[in-house]
Amino acid sequence: GNSVTQMEGPVTLSEEAFLTINCTYTATGYPSLFWYVQYPGEGLQLLLKATKADDKGSNKGFEATYRKETTSFHLEKGSVQVSDSAVYFCALTNSGGSNYKLTFGKGTLLTVNP
Amino acid sequence: NAGVTQTPKFQVLKTGQSMTLQCAQDMNHEYMSWYRQDPGMGLRLIHYSVGAGITDQGEVPNGYNVSRSTTEDFPLRLLSAAPSQTSVYFCASKRRDSDYGYTFGSGTRLTVV
């Protein structure tokens, strides 16, 4: 079955530091890949997505590139802010007609200090 | 546009009690799912539905029932609450033909004592 492995946290950075959160996956075929963000006390929000190999998803300064050869979708941001403190989840769905199941990694807690 | 609405936001139950967590969406999404979130475990799929009248089990279905009589509503029933069901529950929905992933509700924090 599908699985997602992401870097375990917590990750603590100073403001303006560079962020990388690693994510690798196991899936059949060509899954769609997602990063979700959960701010304290809230539900999950879609941060970015990529639906085919070599696609780059981007939003709010965050980027991730769909690397089929390494089955990876690492999240990066060049300069983090205190407001980026949250839990980040990597996730995938199968493509096409079986895209109803979203499989999550365990989440990575990011804390950014001023 | 309200999105995905979950009620209640907080609930305390005694062991053995039953209750229903409500979930409603106003986006005419075909797919709906229930997840539970536990520390260190990420989100795990409890039950899902691909349309009105169609439901199926996810990873952790034991102790939970669902039904989908309308496109809008997807309630989750706890039949006889146990302390192991203490968790945060999220409902989510998406369009069948969308690449944009699921839209999540704000969650229900359930404590079983």
The proportion of strand residues of chain A reads over 45%
Shape of chain A: globular
Helix-strand string of chain A: EEEEEEEEEEEE
* Amount of helix of chain B: under 10%
Query: What's the total helix number of chain A?
Result: 0
Name the descriptors.
heterodimer, A: 114 residues, mainly beta, six-stranded mixed beta sheet, four-stranded antiparallel beta sheet, B: 113 residues, seven-stranded mixed beta sheet, 11 strands, globular
Describe this structure in words.
The complex is a heterodimer of chains A (114) and B (113). Chain A is an all-beta fold and 114 residues long. Chain A has strands at 3-6, 11-14, 19-21, 23-26, 32-38, 44-50, 56-59, 62-65, 75-77, 86-93, 103-104, 108-113. Helices cover 0% and strands 49% of the residues of chain A. Chain A has no helices and twelve strands. Chain B is an all-beta fold and 113 residues long. Chain B is built from no helices and eleven strands. In chain B, strands 2, 4, 5, 6, 9, 10 and 11 form a seven-stranded mixed β-sheet that branches. In chain B, strand 5 (42-51) and strand 6 (54-57) form a beta hairpin. Chain B is globular and about 40 Å long. The N and C termini of chain B lie far apart (36 Å). The chains are: A mainly beta (114), B mainly beta (113). At the A-B interface, strand 5, strand 6, strand 10 and strand 11 of A face strand 4, strand 5, strand 9 and strand 10 of B.
Give a topology summary.
The complex is a heterodimer of chains A (114) and B (113).
Chain A: E1 3-6, E2 11-14, E3 19-21, E4 23-26, E5 32-38, E6 44-50, E7 56-59, E8 62-65, E9 75-77, E10 86-93, E11 103-104, E12 108-113
Parallel strand pairs in A: 2-12
Antiparallel strand pairs in A: 1-4, 3-9, 5-6, 5-10, 7-8, 8-9, 10-11, 10-12
Chain B: E1 4-7, E2 10-13, E3 19-25, E4 31-38, E5 42-51, E6 54-57, E7 64-66, E8 76-78, E9 87-94, E10 103-104, E11 108-112
Parallel strand pairs in B: 2-11
Antiparallel strand pairs in B: 1-3, 3-8, 4-5, 4-9, 5-6, 7-8, 9-10, 9-11
